[in-house]
Every structure is written in C-alpha cells, then in structure tokens.
Amino acid sequence: MSKMKLKDSKTLRLFFSSPFGGMEEEREELTRKYFPQFQHLCNSRGIQFVPVDMRWGITSEAADNAQVINICLREIDRSDVFIGFFGQRYGWHGESDELLQRNFDNAMQKYPWLVNYRGKSVTELEFLHGHLNNPGAIPASICFRDKAYDEAVQQECLAKDKKSKMVKYMAESDHSTMLMKDLIQRVKETESKCLGLLLDYKNPIEGAKFMFESVWECCKELVSGSESQVVSQLEQNRLFHDTFMAFRTSLYYGGEVYFDQLRPDSLKDHPTVLVRGSAGCGKSALLANYVKWLKESEEEINLIYHFVGCAQGTTNSKSILQRILSELQHINGTETKEDSSAAQSLAQTKVSNKFHEIFLKVKTEMQQASSNGKNVLIIIDGLEKVNASSKTEKHLYWIPEEFPPGVSLIVSTENTDLNTIDLLVHQKHFYDIEILPLDTVTQEIISKETLLIKGKELSPHQLERIVRVEQTKNPLFLKIVLSEISIYGYFRLLDKKIDSLIYCDGVKDLLTKVLERLEEDYNSNNLNSPLVQQVLSAIAVSHCGLSEEELVKMFCLSSTSWSPFYFSMEIFFIKHEGLLRFAFLEFENAVKERYLKSPDEREVAIKKLVNYFEKQRQNDIQTPEMLFSMVIRRVAEELPYLQSEINDKHGLIKTLSDVRIFHVLEKKNEYEIIDLLNCTGCKQDEIVELLFASYDKAITHLYNYQQENETINEEPPGYLLMPVLESMKKIFSIANYHRAHVKTLLRIINILEGIHNKVNDTIRQTKLRENRYFLACAYVDNTEYDKAQELHESVMMECRNMLELIKEDKVIKQTLAYTCNGLGILHLKQQHYEEAESLLKESQRLHTEIENELCAAEAVQNLGIAKLETNQPDVALKHFQEAMKVFESVYFGHLPLEVGNLLTNMALCYRRMEDFDLAEAMYQRSLQVKAKAVGWNHEVIATCYMNLGTLEFYRKNNCKAEEYTRKAIEIYEKNEVKLEQNEMWMAQENLVANLIAQEKWEEALPIFLKVFKLVKKENLIDQASASIHREMIRYMTHVKMFEESADVAICHINSHKQRQPIFYLLLDFCDRQAALSSESQPPKRDKTLSVRYALEEIWPGNNELTAYIAQTYLVPDNNLAELLTLVNKMDEMNPNFTWTCYKVAEEWCADNKKMALAVLTKGLEKYPDSSYLKSKLFDCHRDLKQFTEAYSLVKEVIASEPDNQALLLVAGDVACKTGDLELCMELWAKVSLMPDTNLSQMAKSALKNIQDYLDSEDKTNT
Predict the structure, then answer these.
(1) Which residue of 20, 49, 271, 1039 has the smallest Cβ count within 10 Å?
(2) Does 234-333+356-436 match 11-222 at the fold level?
(3) What are the boundaries of each domain within the chain?
(4) Residues 795-809: what's their mean pLDDT?
(5) Is residue 619 within 8 Å of residue 635, measured between CB atoms?
(6) What is the model's pTM?
C-alpha cells in the first residue's frame, strides 16, 4: 500500500461508512471510546480531527434534491482514512427506486463510473469509491459483523415487540443477501491492500476495537508528516497552483485582448504590470489562462506563478517570497541540497527565518538569471488577499523596487485595494491594465458552455435576455446567475427565475438572492436553528475565520446537514490555514447586510462564538503541554477580539488574564495584546494581580497533574510555566507597566534561585544572569537608580570573572554586552556622559564580536544619545544614521517601536541643529510608526507629543506647543503614570513653560507649585528646568508670594548642579521686597545663602553678583572703598575683560557721579592707555563742571576719535570755558564742516558768537 499524506495538512478526516440502520452501537463505541484518542493525537500536533459519518440521518432537502450519493462520494474524496461496517442489512438500493436513480443521475456527472452500479446500495458505492475501485489508494479498514449477533438481536426485538428495530438487523431480501455475499468476496480479495479486514466480529465492542487498532498506526503516521510521505516542497507548491489554474482554464473566453498587452516582447517596455478590476471580473482566470497560453507557445520564458489563497500557506508574504526564491534557484540550478545533519538543518532554518536574507537572495537570483540571458516572468495573483504578518508591516515591502533586464513581474488586485493601486501605479509606475466588462459574444459563449457542462440548455430568447442586461458583463455576476439556473428544477418557472436573477442591482443584490435560495435549501425544519444564517454570520464576525470542525460543533450539525451546504458554498469559501473565510468581499457584505444589519444582530452572532470559545477555554485540560495546545491557540485567535468588539470588558479581562491565552497572544503579536489590555478599561495593578493569580492557579493545576501522573520529579511547575512569566515580562516592558515589570522579574529570579539541582544548572545560571540584567534595566525605567547600578555592576563583575576562566563563551559575552549597554543607559540618565560612552563602546564591540548586529546598533544609538546630550548633534546624527541602516536590514519591511524611537532621536538632532522643518517631519514619522505599533494611547505617543511641543516652543508657536503638551499629559494620565515619574512631572513642567510664554501666569502657578513640591520632596531639582523656575520666582515675588519664591531659590542654591548666581540674587531681591511690603527687616538667613557669600566663597569676581551688590547696596550707601575693592577683584578674576570692568562699574554709578569719577580714575591708573575710560572720565569731569580737569584730557580724547562730531563740539566747549579760544575755534570750525547739519549749525552759531565777542573786545580795546 502506497503511503500518503493528509489531504488537508491541518485536518485528519476519517470516513465512517455503513448502512443507515443497525450500526448504532459501533458508532457509539467508536465515538465514546476511540475518537477521543484520535482527537488527542491530532491536538498534540496542531491538527483537527473530523470523523465523517453520513448515517446520522439524511435530510429531506438532500433527499428531495437527489444529492445523497454525490455528497457521500465527495466527502470520501477529501477524507484520509476509510472505515466500513456491515451487518446483515445491505442498505438503500434498487434500480426501480425512482429517487435513488435520480441520485445516480445527479452524481454521474462527476462520477461517471456509477453507470455500471445502478443496482448497488449507497453503502456499497461508498465501499467502491473508498476502496474497491482503487484498493490501497485510501487507507481502509473494513469489518463485517457475525450473523449470529444480528440473529440474537432479532430474537430479542421479537420478544419485546420492537419490529422497527428488528428490521435494521435483517437482510432486505434474498437478492440483497446475494449482493452482500458478492461484496464480501470482492473485499476479501483485496485483503492485502487493507489496513485491516475482519469478516465475522462477534459484537460491536470487538468490531470497534479492531477498527481502532487497525487504523491507529496509519493515523499516527499521517499526522506526523513522516519524511517518506513528503514530496519536494517545490513540486508540492506547484501542484497547488496548477490545480487552482486547471479549474479556471477548463472554460475561458475573452482574454486574448489582454494577452497582447502581456506578450513577453511587450514586457520589455514595461517589465512591471498591475492587472486590476472589480471582484469577480476574471483576474485569476485571465492570469491562469495567460500562463497556459505561454506554456503552449514557443516563447522561451521561465514562469513562476503564485495564486494567493489557492491553498493553505499561500497568503503570507514570506511564503510567497520563499516560493519565488525556490523557483529562481531551480531556474538557475542553485538549489541548496538538504544536509542530513541536524546541526546543518538547524543552521539553514535559522537563516531561512530571516526575511531580509530571503529578499536579498531573491534579488541575487534574479540578477543571476538576467546575467545568464534567461527570461523570467513572475506572476502573483490576488494581492488583496495577502495577510499582513503584524501591525508594523509596511505595505508590499517584499516586492523589489527594481527588476534586472529579462525579469518581469505581473501582479493583480481588486479595484477596491486602493493602497496597492496607489503604491504600484502612482508611486512605482507599474503598467496599469484594468479588466473591462465582458462583451456580448463572450457572454453568450460562456453561458452556453457553462450550462452544457452541467447538462442544461437555454432557449435563444432566454440566453438573449441574460446577455442583454448590463450586470452580466461582470464574470462573477454571470457565473452566479448560471450556477443558480443550473440547479433550478422547475422548468416551467425558469423564465421567472432568470428575471429574478438578472435584474438584481449588482453582485451584492444577486448574492442576497443566493442567500434566500440557500435558506430554502438548507434551513431544515429538523434543525433547531437556521443553518445558513448561523454559519455565515459566524464566519462573518469571526476574527480569523472558522474551521469546519468548529462550525459543526458550535451549531451541533450532522455530516448530512453540513456536507451538502459546504459543497454548495465552495465557490464562496476560501481556506486559510484550515479556516474558512469568504472568497469575495461582496459575499461578505451581502451576509452582513442580510443577517448582521443591526448592532443587536451582530452582537448575538458574536456572543454565540464567544460562548463556544469560552467553553473551549474552560474545558481545555491544563497539562505540561498547555502552552502549546491547539485549542488554546484557536481560543486566543478569536475570543479576546470578539469580546473587545462587543465591549465585553469583564469577559475580555478574564480571557486575557488566562496566562495560556496571554502567552499565545504575546507570541503572535505583542502590540495587539497591549491594545486589548487597554480595551478592558482595567488599571495596571488590577491586570497584573489577575495575571499573577492565574499563573499561581496554573502552577497548582500542573502540580496536581504531576502528582496524579506520578511525574512529580520532573521539572518543577514554576519552571515549566516560566515562558508565561517571560511573556508577561515582555508585555509589561513594552507597555511601560514599570511596577509590574519589576514584580515579574523578581518572581522569575525567585523561581530560578529556588530550583537549584532540579534543572540543568548551566541553563539555570544563564537565565538567572540574564533576568538580573533585565531587572536592573527595569529599575532604571522605574527611576530606582541605586538598585539598578548595584545589580548591573554585580552581573557585570560575574560575567567578567567567568570570561577570565572561559575566554570565548558567547552566552556570557552576550550578557556582558547587554549589561554594558544597560549600565551605559543608566549613566546617560544620570548625565555621567564619559562613563556612559566608555560602557556603550564596549557593548558595541562585544556585540559585534558575537555577530549580534541589532544589539550593536542599539549601542551605537545610545552613543548617539550621549553625543546629543553633550551638544554634538551633528556627531549624534551620524551614529543614528549608522544604527538606522542596521534597523532597516534587521526589521526589513517592518516599522516596530525601535524604529520610531530612532526617528525621534534623529529629529532631536535636527532640532538642536535648528533645522526645525526636518525635525518636525522626523517627529511626525516617528509618531505614525509608534502609533501603528502600539496605538494612540501608549506612553511613547505621549513622548512624541512632548517632542513636538518642545519643537513648537522653539518656533515660538506657543499655543501649538501647549496643545501638544496637554495631549501628552492626557495620555500619561490614561496610563496611570504618577506625578513622581519623570515623564509626568517633566511634561507638567513643560506645560508651565508654554503658559509662561503666553503670559498665562495665573494658570501656570498651581501647576508649577504642584511640580515643585514633588521635585523638592524627591530631590529631583538637578533634573528640573532652571529657566522655568527663575521666571516663576520673579512672578511669585511680583504677586508677593515671598515665602514660596524663597523656597524655590533656596532649593536651587542647595543643589550643586543647579546652583547659579541668579538664584542668590533672586533670593536677596525676594527678601528685600518682603521687608518693604511688611515694613520690617529682611528675614535672617544663614550666611551661605547671601549674595556676599556667593561672591566671596563661590564665584569671586563674578560680574553678575558684583553688579547686584554694587547697585543694590554700595552705590546707594556711597561705599566707595568697598566698591573699588569689588571692581578690582572682578578685574583680577576676569583678565580677558581688561578695562571693561571699570566701564560697567562706572555705569552702576550713573546716579552718583563722584563715585563714578573715582571708579574711572582708578581704572585709568590701571589702564592708562584706555581711550574709552579717558573719554568717560572727560564726560564725568564735564558733568561735575570740573572743566580744568576735563581740559587736561581734551587733546587725548579728540586724538582717539578725531571724526566724532559731537565729541569735538563738547571738547571745544571745554576749551572755551578754560580760556583756550584758539583751540575752541579750531574744533568748532572743523565741526561746522562735517555732515551732521544740526551739530554743524550749532558749531557755526557758536563760532559766530565767539567772533562777535572778539570783535566786540577789539572795538572796546580800540
């Protein structure tokens, strides 16, 4: 017997064949005792078990439509194992039975061999199709019951007058007995091809046991996927797509016009093509027939074709790209031969899991094919069906940007797939082909040929009516119409039926008619509820789709109810990974419009699924394999999303706090679980408490299980369930649940410390070091810096000591690299930049040595942060750009949170470089990336808004800055971020800055006071904004909040980092204002808080302090001696100032000219060559009317500024007043000739007055 594989890799189907009656006990025994074992076998391998029993009662609809034989044989076609039972009863047969013969007529279209067996029973037909026609093709086990058992039951029934039951155990007639004997003989002749054959089992218990034992090993082999059953992956994949194409090439017309546009010589001008059209327009059929046409042509072209959704595993981008790579390697002859060694296989697996490497290999293979002169055409049909692997995935990132000469790409999608059309046509400039409606001739041909295949024919008038309407120009619409006509059984009413179909308003309306017909056909009165509505509604509201097994169990459907309906729906279903979804969006919309129009209807449908999956969750036994249960995986895929949709917060938190569900969701997509947690409305502490309670409960269940099964000496429950804690650790870290993150890590460490000698100690020690490192990082996030530093340094020392003994231990070296990075980040937060850079460089080096490029890039990014914080944004940007190159490679096609963080850092560089526009663009990109990853209410989004607010603040767009900052605070509040956490109080402080900039002082004040109270209490003043605090001190002093002002100033004075001269001045000013206000003396303070102390002990010669003391105390008190002492000290401490110290000192004395005179005199003594001081001293003598002293400086002053018109004018005045009229007239004469008309006019006037005076004197003398 040839070995086979599962027909559906996700499902084991076992077909149970027997007559309608008399086999109830065998069925009960199998169902109660043996089927659960098959179920467990399949569950352990992630496979569904489906026993197919068509003897649960044929529905009246199936009988009326004469589809019984057809349905039974089609179920055998998709079954993996055939088991048959017979007693004495032969089953439904008879060539004179009109209904049975109609069944034959209907089934012979698909199974023409039936023509020779019209006198056989339905059960024998199953035996023929499942075994006798091709013995061994399907694994089969067959049992015939001993006649003695049936006779005993007959006697018992006769005694109890149960004639209806007795008939089931009797042969129908002598003729049926003869047919039975003939069947037994033919089966016996094939014994060598059977898994098992038992001709005379004594009772149902014996028969069921034999049946189980004979097929068990075969079923184990089927579900194990043994190597002997596996054909090459390349051939298997081709078979899926070839089968899909065969179905679409059997009847095709009208595509030749598109073939001309897609000829290989045309593709040289446009090597990338998008084929698009409405749903059902024939895109798949066009491309399938195009492939067939190319194969039959003489074109030398290598074809690679992929029809998305044609089989399981064809809908994700990685599988598509991997298949294209395999085909390209086959074309180039570069296939990698499989290595038998486990180590080599593991290495290959590791490489194949890297999507970017697959992508690069595809590009390399395309280039090689091009270089070798080979023409390659890649065809991908159905881009709208490609599933995104995560929320962070970029759209169609896996399609190469360029194709080398000779390599072309044709893809297809629906017109509703606007993102794809925009990307490919408008951005990447694909050649655009839109499929147009069918023309009349093509419609007629398709209609005739389709109906002919089904043995139907329309009159010319009927055909004309069909093709005349606009709607049938759509192939899907036409296909549905013809399908509905072909199964319509009332010829006299056919015209009316045609009209009801062709005049529907589009595909959606037509599909509503189909739903009505399905309801008539399959909503049996024997069922408790309408099958069609329930099944289709369930699929429509499901998150990922539903399996056949789930639907059958959910709605308690028999095989005879489900199978006919399923086969009738094949055109509308598509299977993704064993789950049924709708093949057409239009059909889904029609289902929703008919059955789920109101919110209440939708909620009822969802609750049905919720109840089903909740029972699955509750009933799944908690064993050591609980984390890998297929049942739990399916529950996790559906239940939380359904509960979220109907806002069932109570149910949702109960589901998410089931650690099995939590673990599966974390492995599937960590960002989605954060969204779901946010939907619960629960606070962080409540979520954490529930999860830990669930974890403890799981440990108890596992411990009890180990005791009951005497496996208590195996690995401890806490250790077995540690993957759950690892999942919690990861999610709490991403979600910024800081306290929960620390609690989880402490729990992990506690478990690892408590299982010494119970598990592999090398592994235990490694995990312990790693989690201590993670705990140190968590302490950093929780601002517990002392604990973090102690733990980081402890792990670091342990790693360094171990590396002294084992030089090249990669695991230890990796932990050391992580620890260097973690400790470096801690130093960054503490602003110890030199220590941080040293550690981060070591981390980069170690990660590079062990080829951990991502972590090396993260260390480079942190080095960039260090440069950014030390005012080197240009250097920082280079680090960030280097890290981004690695991120783009590692995260190929995805934009996770890490990329968003890096974009933020790059934006910070541009802001510091004052390229605000580019900074904003980067911030906005970062915001979109992060929001897509974690949603709009995550803390990282708040950080984005904070950055945007800061940017607008620098732009002086203060209103916008305030808006962004308030958004950030709102998100922090939603995430229960306490004021004590840096993010929150710094955001509040930024808000104060925004309000100050808008002079909203009253609004800013209470926020500032709240933040300052915290900052003071937690000793965080070193991290506060000194500029904001300065402005608030001034405002509070202005509004006479003297005590509060002084408190802030003193807090800064007592901080070594934030201590600045301005705070001493502000404190002194505040105290003086308080004294003035209360008409009392200023408060007495420690001398260390005085401005004099600051000047004498901390900043000797500080010009700001000196100026304040001089202007506030010395000049008003006329204390010239101390003033000169301070100015001299300031001059000594600031040698670069030279004479400017005396210049500013003179300005302080603006209201005391005598003190100013003394300062300038002292300055000139020290700097005799200072023309500025001479000029100011000259002015000072003039102001004091000391003209003689001023005259002594005239010549030196005008020599330094010979063209200063005003100076020459006043110098002339001094000369005049001291009697040097000659010099006076010389200077004024010069002024009178200079440009300033006012001054020259004044000089002319003065000259005239002097001349008049001299003339007067001459006359007097004469």
Answers:
(1) 1039
(2) yes
(3) 11-222, 234-333+356-436, 438-503, 526-597
(4) 88
(5) no
(6) 0.62
